[in-house]
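Quick one:
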Amino acid sequence: MKTTIEELTAFRAVVDTGSITAAAEQLAQTVSGISRALSRLEQKLDTTLLRRTTRRLELTEEGEAFLAHTRGILEAIDHAEEQMATRREQPAGRLRVNAASPFMLHVIVPLVPAFRERFPRIQLELDTDDLNIDLIERRTDIAIRIGALRDSTLHARPLGSHRLRVLASPAYIDAHGRPKRVEELAHHMLLGFNQPESLNRWPLRGAHGEEWPITPQLTASSGETLRQLALQGVGIVCLSDFMTGADRASGALVPLLARDTVDVRQPIHAVYYRNTQLSARITSFLDFVSERLR
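Output:
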């Protein structure tokens, strides 16, 4: 049988305090418990570590040698526990975060300077994909997912939500006019996603209810690509607020059909595998982002 930390701790305490009674008081244990721990240790080592006299305990030669190893082991454990406590207070290590390129550019990247100042020992690795990835295959700690979640093997933490709006640039409106009714979109250049198809159902009231399916004349896999096209006056787009806030504030993109737009919000989740043991660096990142998105 292997020796235990309890037995090593009892042995060190007896030597340091000079008696089993004093060691029991120091460790908040019973005298009999300390005595049994010492006996088990000597049985496992098949040697005598302490000579017990009526007045005192003395180390044997073997006890002297083993005490040096005991102190080294227990000091290493204390140091490791201190390091873990420090990491909880000051999280450290590599953190791999995956997100769609628009969310990475418009939400995560602006937060990086403040996050690095708050958690300087966390080494961020930022990866972008416009399609969902396999977290294990890509060795990813956290992925940010926008929209409905389908993978039941993932644990999800909600970070917030953002509204969808139909938008165009002033240049496009000047050249092609502003649609006044939802049906007029059929006569305009519509920019949409090549997948998933659900992103081409815009939150507009009309003959189809509160979703208006469009047939885009130009498609892209990335919302950022569609945003850039809309800014260039190429066509009308439907995008989430998180990537168009500055554009709307500056007037670079203008909301269309506001009275017919349904207040639809895309949920935003951070996902990780259910069996993932959340480290301090993961929870620090999730708390930091969640607070600012809220």
